[in-house]
Amino acid sequence: MTSKFLKLLEPANIGKVKTRNRIIKTAQGSSFIEPTGYVGEQAKAYYETMAKGGVGLLIVESCGVEFPLGIHHFPVQFHLDDDKYIPGYSQLAQVVHKHGCPIFLQLFHSGPWNPTGLLPKRDTKSASTLTESELPGPGFAIPRGVSLSEVEDLIQMFVKAAARAQKAGFDGVEINAATCHLVNAFYSRIFNKREDEYGCATIENRARFMNRIISEMKRQLGADFAVTALINIAEYGHEKATPIEEGVQFARLAAEAGADAIQVRAHGYGHRGGLLQPDRLFYPEMPKPMPKDLDWSHKGVGAIIPLATAVKKVVSVPVIAACRLDPELGEKLLQNGDIDFVGMTRRLLADPELPNKVAAGKLEDINPCTGCLYCMDVRLHNSPIRCRINANLGREREFALKPAAKVKNVLVIGGGPAGMEAARVAALRGHKVTLLEQEPKTGGLLPLAAMLKDIETKELMDLAHYLTLQMQKAGVTIKTGTGFTPSMITELKPDVIILAAGGVAAKSAIPGVDGKNVVSGSTLKRQLKHYSRFFGPKTLADLTKIWMPVGKQVVVIGGTIHGCELAEFLIKRGRKVTILHSGTDIGEGMTGDDQFQFMRWIAGKKEAAILTGVTIEKVSKTGVTFKIDGKSQTISADTVALALPLDANTLMIKSLEGKAPEVYTVGDCNEPHLIADAIASGATIGHSI
Description:
Layout: E1 12-14, E2 17-19, E3 23-25, H1 41-52, E4 57-64, H2 86-97, E5 103-108, E6 125-126, E7 144-145, H3 148-168, E8 172-177, H4 182-187, H5 203-221, E9 226-236, H6 244-257, E10 261-268, H7 305-312, E11 319-322, H8 327-336, E12 341-344, H9 346-350, H10 354-359, H11 374-380, E13 409-413, H12 417-428, E14 432-437, H13 446-452, H14 457-474, E15 477-480, H15 487-492, E16 496-499, E17 518-520, H16 521-532, H17 537-543, E18 553-557, H18 561-571, E19 576-581, H19 592-603, E20 608-612, E21 615-619, E22 623-628, E23 631-636, E24 639-642, H20 650-655, E25 662-665, H21 675-688
Parallel strand pairs: 3-4, 3-12, 4-5, 5-8, 6-7, 8-9, 9-10, 10-11, 11-12, 13-14, 13-16, 14-15, 16-25, 17-24, 18-19, 18-24, 19-20
Antiparallel strand pairs: 1-2, 21-22, 22-23
Helix pairs in contact: 1-2, 2-3, 3-5, 5-6, 12-14, 12-21, 13-14, 13-17
């Protein structure tokens, strides 16, 4: 055990359950459940991988106690509302226990929350009936208040689900009373207008629903079965939101009712995703004012820790917090007594082996989470969860590392994310791999992406460094500053060629795009690549705030992810920007969260405008002429920026046909898309050759 993380790696207890260390894999939906509601092989492989990675305690994702009324991802959300599902959950518990890891199941009822809008029309339940005007924002179905007899039924639904979990071999359950789910609807005055013993006359009344669930579970299931509570300690963005003083009392009452631990959370209304990931509040710019009571000194990382320390003052049970904590900050918070357990989700999705690597002192081998929320975005579209940088997620058995049946000489052309991942995986399987990168450094477009997305600058550069280091450790021969030439085929005699040279600039037939006032995306990338040889992404981003070869008034042609990120970059540097987009949907390729925040941010900028459904007619020295709603208009511009998606590198692909027994293409050179797709395509080829 490394002495740097003595507290983090220390075994501890939650009730009668002993954890291997103080890292908890907190619950997050995966959509790995079978459409029939049964636990299948994909879910078991996913959670077994987490257990093998060394996590101290694993909490299985939000599991509905009533189906389909109590879930909000249909039909791909865990639920345990019937005894027929017990065998599958039992198998899940067994594969986790096989690796010495305790396992809890999070139980919840979605109540009025319907973030995907994909549920069929249903009987939406809440503490009280609300009108549409009383709803605290989008994502909520109009609910009806439950009767007293229904309250009793719902309490028993939770208890029966916990009993099934116990019968399946789980060590405990977590009750999700946070976000905007049903239990929180009783806590929160936003949803609770009751006048009975579950109403808002007292704190005890508002807490009664949750506390009855806890006490009934402990009474019926025994002291050895752990029950923990996940609670909004503070809410923001609504006049009736729960203040920290009340949230702390909810935690105290839950502990008195028998909860063996409290996990703290904050929630914000009017912000997509609430405060589930406080770090995303900083994109595109930090809003003012920021929610009070929280710690914003680390750009959202650890923001809710003040809530945890407040709860620790009134409870004697362990307190858990998950807020993009990393091992170093987690150790510091544990040493300071601010929390008792470090919750992680996104970092473990990026690298399930993180706990084992921390214990072995191999921090440089941890795949760095970039905090992009691609994982959450995919699932909000009712698809199985994916990770931008961990292609194995959800494909654990398919991508299990297997030695190559025959060692081959592999040539990878291109050192971007796709090429590096393909080279890394192929080398780990035993192939002899050489990677060529014409630039002085590997990373492809990652350094440029790091400069454009200032919220992810460090993380994207960490990813480039990680992939480069892992290639080196796997034995890849890396040749930077070395472009591919046909003579290399004769010299290297590859059995396999993997082309990962990136896409090519899309050609535009718009009259005037060859003018001196027109800058293409490829030209900008080429210029920035040149300067990136001398400056890091952050320094280069800072220098562009002083000077850029771009006029004050800019028209960006193209409103996909490329155009939106370029517009954001320019606006932050004092340019007046207009986006002209041929389609109707701005931001294609962005995660839903980034897209939402970008649109809300740009709508408040006087120096920005977006026009959709346009047809560009021509570009002149003074501006751009376009047609919208059948009428031609002209807008002035000092600079016109073409932000068109890349095209596949078809010429180079054709030039390599037949040059080796096996030729593959990965990443943008084949089908320009996102970092997640590039890494996934590289991993797929790396595992298949």
